[in-house]
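Encode chain A's predicted structure.
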Amino acid sequence: MAQYSGDDMVRIMAALSNPHRMRVVATLVDGPNYVSQLARELEISRPLLQVHLRRLEAAGLVTSEMRISDEGKAMKFYTIEPFALQLSPETIARGARSLSLHTDEGGEDR
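Encoded structure for chain A:
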């Protein structure tokens, strides 16, 4: 199992702390998918979905690539990246020892 730094743990947990992002990850477990199809499946707008996908990508949980459809249309596909974050008092203590002393994207002290 991968060893994550405290900063990685905070980034991953923050990315997964939103129900929409959890649903995106759950949907991508079935394989790569493109934005429009994901938005339909999750019943959320494409702009809102793209906000969540950017957050997941910044956390390293998904990757994206442009593909050209048979009709010549550019489509952005997202794929889940394998990850395993085990939470226990011990793993949190290990992560806490490696935290940076700055604020996260939301402006909260870490």
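The helical segments are 6-16, 19-28, 35-42, 46-58, 89-96.
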